[in-house]
Amino acid sequence: MVNTEHAGRTALLAGASGLVGSALLTALLADARYQKVLCIGRRKLALQHPKLTQQIVDFQALPALPAVDDVFIALGTTLKVAGSQAAMRALDVDAVVAVARAAQFAGAQRLGVVSSMGADARSAVFYTRIKGEMEEALLRLGFAQTVIAQPSQLTGPREALGQPKRVAERLGLQVMRWIKPLVPANYQPIAAEHVARALLDAVAHNTPGVTRLLSGQMQA
């Protein structure tokens, strides 16, 4: 039974072409609490759905957005794909914050974002450092509710989404199958769909303030 208090909502989603983003889109479209889903991105998805509206945007110059209730952000890349640290930061930090700010101007009070395990703005590791910087910038925006998912290594259909093969990642997952019982839950690989479901459920729970979802918590 749908809670009528949360029914008829409009969700904004950025990053729907990625592993967690595509799983989030599937979950949002199937969720009776959401009447409309607006996806923004640099290219259009092939998917069509009665609840879905798509808008092509430049993340460096976002237009005013239509009214939304909740915003979900699953933007991210790798250094290899981005080509430089500056280009990676432009998407993983600047674009994420720009989307959150634009959604806030459009009325959003609840934010769900995909970050990373170990995110820390003072980390010596570039990847975890920019994730930490992104989290701190989002918290300064002051959403009524902010949910931050911090998954470990993600698993899912990368090739089906047109993402490049990651040989080292595949080898790591094979090794993990043998040693998984010895590895703490927060460090075990996690399916993208589990992250998406946990993030959506946490935002829907509507707990004021900041909630961080560790990888072990999000394991189905």
From TrEMBL:
Domain of life according to the entry: Bacteria
What the entry lists under SUPFAM superfamilies is as follows: NAD(P)-binding Rossmann-fold domains
The UniProt entry, under InterPro entries, shows:
NAD(P)-bd_dom_sf
- Protein name, UniProt field: Nucleoside-diphosphate sugar epimerase
PANTHER family in the cross-refs: OXIDOREDUCTASE HTATIP2
Gene3D superfamilies listed in its UniProt record? NAD(P)-binding Rossmann-like Domain
